[in-house]
Design a protein that fits this description.
The complex is a heterodimer of chains A (45) and B (432). Chain A has 45 residues and is mainly alpha-helical. Chain A has three helices and one strand. Chain B has three domains: 56 residues, no CATH class; 104 residues, Roll (Pdz3 Domain), CATH 2.30.42.10; 176 residues, 2-enoyl-CoA Hydratase, Chain A, domain 1. Chain B is globular and about 65 Å long. The chains are: A mainly alpha (45), B alpha+beta (432).
Chain lengths: 45, 432
Amino acid sequence: MKSVKKIMPTLFLLMLTTGSVQKTVFAQVLLTPEEMQQDLDYVVD
Amino acid sequence: MIRRVHPDPFHALSETEFDALIQDLSQSITTSRPREEFFFILKKLTNSLKDGHTELYYSPEQSYVPARFYWAVDGLVVIQAQSGCGLEFGDRVVSLGEKDPWDLLDRLAQVIATENAYWLRDRGADALSRGSFLRHLGLVEGNAVRSVVEDINGNLKDVRVSLTPDPPPSDPTSSRPFCGFSLDEAHSLGFFYLDQCHFNSSYLSALQTFFEEVKNKRIKRVALDIRRNTGGSSLVVDEFLRYMPVRFGGWFVHMPYTKVRGFLSDIRFSPEAAAQQNYSQTSGYLLADLNLRLIGANLMRISPPLPLDLIFHGQVFILTSGRTYSSANWFAALFQDNRLGSILGEPTGNKPTYFGHPLNFKTPNSQFNLYISHKKFYRPDYTKDSLNSVLPDFYFPTRIEDIREARDAQMEGLLSLLSGSGLDTGRKEKTR
């Protein structure tokens, strides 16, 4: 059990590097109203 | 950036209308939203400019329909499909998510930067393979799109097509070199295709070899196929013009140095344009002298090829489609306005008098790629400024039946013209 816990962070990082997980994480990114307003201002001005 | 960079941000909407739109958009982002939803909100802003080169791109796409579509003049058709996905080559799409494809086109016009219906159809067909656009249009149920199609035999099929993380199969012809040529001695026709406007040694050498072969085989007609060309460097046009004889505004003067009526352009300067284009000026405008067009003095000088006998004196045809865009559209407009050749096929994908040469940016939080035009180009013939496309002299559209039977409608049209039987076969344009 201890050894599994030890490699958990590595496994997690490995998962993040795989395409499908990356895509899922990216798709679910939520933008806050402030972030969106900042982007809107950037595009306009 | 739009206010700082674009040559005329208020040409489609007035400044008051533009400000009202921004106000509306601000009010729609008062709660947190997924990145994909925000993309379509921002797109309303960039699309309000009605400028195909001022555009926002969503990447990476997360899901796709495993099929590719083509928007023919008489409807939407499947041109490639992953085996077992429910769709098959040649299926005519009757409905997607219970919506008629033509009605979807009207809604796609709100989220695709476009200046005419031909580019909208081309880009719209591509968008209908993309999960983000399908979700935005409300066509996805669960993780699938319900589609009713009519197969090649006329049978109706009601299928649910699941979205997948992998892009649809790629166009098999996309792997061919970006330019190449062949000769059809029976029709005395030299055929040169250019899929991208890359100005490089491969193009220069292919073009020279082509015209050498044309001369050696005494070929009388040349067809340039730019139907799949969405642009790049306009220098490719200048290079092609070197092989053309002098025909200026209808005059018939054969001289070793060609002068043709060229495009003019306005430039909007800004710190961003200076940084990306190495301008020394960081504000103001450089406005084209449009009077030059009125008196036909918008001339560009083109050096001839060496040896001089490579100059081609026969008939030239330019094959176009709704995908002929930007510098490729420039190609068609320049040949048409200088009467250097006949345009054959379908109307092109953007206005010949248009905004272009976009600068590129990235939105700080959502990380969307943002492109904004910083020039306005004017086609050589000012009397055609209001047209939203280069209109073909000989109209040969692609129909669903052509796709199903693997017929090249434009090449068939050209060959029928050359054999003298096709002058009456130019088909009337569908009105919608």
